[in-house]
Every structure is written in structure tokens, then in C-alpha cells.
Amino acid sequence: MSLGNILIMQSGGCTAVINQSLAGIITSYQNIAPKSRIYGADHGIEGILSGNIHDITDISSEGIKSVGSSPGSALGSTRRKLLPTDTVTIFNLLDRHKIQTFHIIGGNDSATTGLTFQKEAESIGYKL
């Protein structure tokens, strides 16, 4: 099963585990999907909409350890809500980068955003 490339974003309030979650996701995909590229979105939805995603695939184990123990949000967070008009721009970016796996690290609103993405992907036939 191909996972395609991976996109990770952080959103909502910063917590003690938000960067540890990021570190765990990166480490896992470096091991289970070595041919996939891992991208991080600057400031969540805002970064995706403006095309500010960065390839973080090759971050070293020391870098991952540093991220996991750092306060705040390593990728930058946002509280911006997803608007219905955002999805076309976002799915164009996902398609351009061959992203099929999308992790959203955050709280309840972030979970709602993830559900919205999944439903939209299903409705347009995008493999996510």
C-alpha cells in the first residue's frame, strides 16, 4: 500500500505534547515510508493556502529530538477556521505534491478540520 507523500500541520493552542506528536509522526514515516516525502505546513491552514510547506523528510534524529522537547509549535500554529472556499486551493496543493496522507495535530477544531478534509476528498474522488 502506498502512502504517497505526507503533510503535517499543527493548529490550535500549543500544548505540552504538540511537538512530541510531530516528532513521533516524522520518526514513524521515516521508518515505514522511506520513499515518501514528509512536508510540514507553516502555521497550519494559513501556510497551506499560501503554499508555505517545507520538505522535512531528512531532518536528523538529533533535530527530531530537539523538536520533541521544544515548547510551542515547531511548525507554527493557527486558529484560522477552514472556509468552504479554501478546499479547492488546498486540494490543488495536495495534488501538486502527491500528498495522500495528511496529519493535523491539535484539538477539537483540528479534528473537525480533518473530518472536513476527509469528506471533501471522498466527494471529489481524491485519495487521502
Automatic annotation (TrEMBL):
Q: Name one GO molecular function term.
A: metal ion binding
**Keywords, A to Z?**
Kinase, Magnesium, Metal-binding, Transferase
Per the record's keyword annotation, is Transferase included, yes or no? Answer: yes
Residues annotated as domain Phosphofructokinase: 5-121
Q: What is its EC number?
A: 2.7.1.11
Answer yes or no on keyword Acetylation: no
Q: Which InterPro entries match?
A: Phosphofructokinase_dom (IPR000023), PKF_sf (IPR035966)
User: What name has this protein been given in UniProt?
Assistant: 6-phosphofructokinase (PfkA, PFK)
